[in-house]
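Appendix B. Chain record.
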Amino acid sequence: MTPIPYGKQFITPEDIQAVVETLQSEYLTQGPKIKEFEDAFSKYIGCQYAVAVSNGTAALHLSTLALGVKPGQKAITTPITFAASANCIRYCGGEVTFCDIDPESYLLDIRKVKAILEAVPKGTYAGIVPVDFGGLAVDLEAIKKLADEFGLWIIEDACHAPGGFFVDQSGEKQHCGNGKFADLSIFSFHPVKHIAAGEGGMITTNSRILYEKLLTLRTHGITRDIGRFSNSKAFAASDHLATSYPGWYMEMQTLGYNYRMTDFQAALGLSQLKRADEGLKRRRAIAKTYDEAFKSHSLIHSQLNELEGNTGHAYHLYVIQVPDRLGLYNHLRKDKIFPQVHYIPTHLMPYYRELGWKVGDLPYAEAYYTKCLSLPMYPTLTDEEQEYVIKSITSYFGKY
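Structure tokens predicted for this chain:
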């Protein structure tokens, strides 16, 4: 058996051809493929606007900038996520409050979020960053109601969940990133994600104001929009008789960043997007096989998914909780199966410990970490390989 990783990109000849054609075109960056990818992605997600950026972390940072996060402002997020979900607040000088998770779904526990908000005066917190962990969609309708009550913005970290959805109170499917509840949503195109572009990210929104801010912020704070210029036509042209802005003119109007995506990355992402539904279907089939294999094993528990009829799980990850996690991890690696741990609780990283967080602050998140393990989950995982993984796991627990 060849090595089996927890995640893996799937590159087809069509993907390669799309990249080659772009490399042979007139544009490697700031060209037409960017807008083409943005338009296709917004249509897929069901939102009005999409902004392509260099990676998911850049997407988070630009989102906090667009929403005006300032030094000292507080925001709430989950500790069971990649560090960038919290770090984006710190980039702006804000303060992060970690809230514990629901032990069944592994998602941010909205009841605990509400308790945090009610314990302090309104205005103490500016926003919330919920995470669609593993691909299971957060109930953004409920979070939006709470955010409106306390005057909070919402950045949905949907990096794990393109194509995922939750069902709202009316019974309607609400796809991750559709802009109906969150001010901004962000996605990643890292190789292990649903859509691979090498690196890359996307921000989605239904706000025209935020969309225009993001376009400027991702390119050094520079605009070429004549309607937004501040300097006079005479200054721009260095000619007091000038009646229009010259073709070369642009303005840096705010402190932005170079967070652009390249055209060849966009070409790869666009090609991958065409197979997104196919890949999602395969991920759900793999998850169903795992569910069936483990349902009779009392020592193996998986993330709440189909138990409550939520068929909208996007399954970036298939996470199990087991006793003797280290033993199983080492056993699988000996069998050339390479699982991963998602995640070490962010509040216990040394950086956040130095800010005052400690063991015992978030007991459910910390208990989850002691047992969690992410199994191989990617569209090209074969039935034979998955069966090999399952047999390796169940044989290990045969000793219990």
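Further analysis of this model is presented in Appendix C.
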